[in-house]
């Protein structure tokens, strides 16, 4: 089996899809449980206009949950994958803007409580978040590649 | 599942999530609910700029009662969405010196003098400052104000408040849905201009925490002119050994 065949093998594709789904459901849950804390996190980014903070804090976690379920259940995988990719790109841009500003923030990705970290620790965490999101984008790319290969083969 | 277009499917997923979010929010508990649409005046402008202040109509000095004026300033009016639009507005005090400007001299001196709270010597320096939403104070100042029985407001989340708060402080989490109701209730409670000019101290967790500043903006929006932000907040209070209470009540 070549590397290309291995990377597009259904065995891997199913697991990547389920892993992404679980990640998004795990990320969504604390935000669904405590929307005001997540709104506070969004506020800390200093990007959205004030009027959009609460509506984003309410809707975004549920979008994460719904697309996470879609990926796990294998329902409407393609649109779910697009939404995941779009959200990851938006998150990466938001983090990058704050890195450029030197504004050390908690990303609010998996936890909505403020971490007791120093400025340097927060900045380091933000770089790690960028790397993690880039890794998830690679997972999305794998899913898209496998689907394309299967479509061409069919 | 009949929608074949992935764009349409993606849109449907987002709409579905939005509907669930709104329904879930409607049934959420008081401390977990968000106001739709979320609006925090000057939320992205902390520390605040000083917006133009609506000055009261000039009134004859002999008139004893404070002027009643409709608040028309957008920022200030929007900060108090549930408060009736007609509110007693007291004129800003003469800030410094004996020579007042044309605008400040329009204030009714008699009414203004009556409106001032009777402050003890220790509190004489904590005078109303209508030109700015808040003044940051240190732990010493906070302790001095606390000793004089000044109202303290806790801007942190309710859960943090229940774990421990400055004894006597009221819960006023700026991120929870009922904050405007609480601000309005406080305004009703302090209808008397003399009461409105009494100092109020707001705190959160100190450091980079801006919740207290945001709450101060809200209070300023309903004409509280003597609001102080305890800069170092609750952690500093604990370090100083100040009175702390746990639970949901002050």
- The overall average pLDDT of chain A, rounded, is 93
Oligomer: heterodimer
- Main pleated-sheet profile of chain A: none
Overall residue-averaged pLDDT value of chain B = 72
Helix content of chain B: 25-40%
CATH architecture descriptor name of the domain at 117-245 in chain B: 3-Layer(aba) Sandwich
Give the termini separation of chain A: 19 Å
How many helices of chain B in DSSP terms?
A: 10
- The succession of helices and strands of chain A, N to C, reads HHHHHH
Gyration radius of chain A, rounded: 17 Å
- What's the number of extended β-strand segments of chain A? 0
Question: Ranges of chain B with pLDDT <50 over ≥5 residues?
Answer: 40-119
**Which structural class matches the secondary elements of chain A?**
mainly alpha
Beta-strand segment tally of chain B: 9
Question: End-to-end distance of chain B, in Å?
Answer: 53 Å
**Counting H and I runs of at least 4 residues, what is the number of helices of chain A?**
6
User: What is the fold named in CATH at topology level of the domain at 117-245 in chain B?
Assistant: Oxidized Rhodanese, domain 1
Given helix and strand content, the structural type of chain B is alpha/beta
- Following the backbone from N to C, one meets helices and strands of chain B in this order, namely HEHEHHEHEHEEHHEHEHE
């Amino acid at each position: 089996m070549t590397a290309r065949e291995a990377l597009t093998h259904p065995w891997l594709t199913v697991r990547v899809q389920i892993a992404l789904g679980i990640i998004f459901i795990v990320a969504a849950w604390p935000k669904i449980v405590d929307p005001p804390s997540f709104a506070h996190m969004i506020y800390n980014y200093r990007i959205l206009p004030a009027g959009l903070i609460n509506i984003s804090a309410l809707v975004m976690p549920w979008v994460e949950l719904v697309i996470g379920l879609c990926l796990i259940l294998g329902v409407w995988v393609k649109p779910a994958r697009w939404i995941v990719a779009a959200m990851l790109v938006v998150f990466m841009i938001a983090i990058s803007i704050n890195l450029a500003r030197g504004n050390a923030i908690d990303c609010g990705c998996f936890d909505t409580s403020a971490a007791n970290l120093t400025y340097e620790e927060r900045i380091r965490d933000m770089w790690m978040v960028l790397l993690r999101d880039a890794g998830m984008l690679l997972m999305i790319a794998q899913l898209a590649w496998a689907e394309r290969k299967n479509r061409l083969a069919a | 599942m009949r929608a074949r277009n992935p764009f349409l499917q993606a849109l449907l997923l987002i709409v579905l999530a939005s509907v669930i979010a709104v329904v879930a929010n409607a049934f959420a508990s008081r401390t977990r609910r968000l106001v739709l649409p979320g609006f925090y005046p000057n939320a992205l402008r902390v520390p605040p700029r000083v917006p133009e202040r609506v000055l009261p109509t000039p009134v004859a000095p002999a008139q004893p009662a404070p002027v009643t004026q409709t608040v028309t300033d957008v920022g200030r009016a929007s900060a108090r969405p549930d408060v009736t639009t007609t509110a007693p507005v007291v004129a800003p005090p003469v800030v410094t010196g004996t020579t007042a400007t044309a605008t400040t001299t329009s204030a009714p001196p008699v009414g203004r003098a009556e409106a001032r709270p009777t402050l003890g010597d220790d509190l004489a320096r904590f005078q109303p400052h209508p030109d700015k939403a808040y003044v940051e104070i240190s732990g010493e100042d906070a302790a001095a104000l606390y000793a004089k029985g000044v109202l303290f407001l806790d801007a942190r989340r309710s859960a943090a408040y229940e774990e421990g708060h400055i004894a006597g402080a009221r819960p006023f989490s700026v991120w929870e849905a009922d904050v405007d109701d609480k601000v309005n209730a406080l305004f009703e409670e302090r209808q008397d201009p003399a009461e409105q000019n009494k100092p109020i101290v707001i705190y959160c967790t100190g450091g980079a925490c801006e919740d207290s500043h945001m709450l101060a903006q809200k209070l300023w929006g309903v004409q509280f002119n003597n609001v102080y932000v305890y800069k170092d907040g609750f952690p500093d209070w604990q370090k100083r050994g100040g009175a702390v209470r746990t639970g949901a009540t002050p």
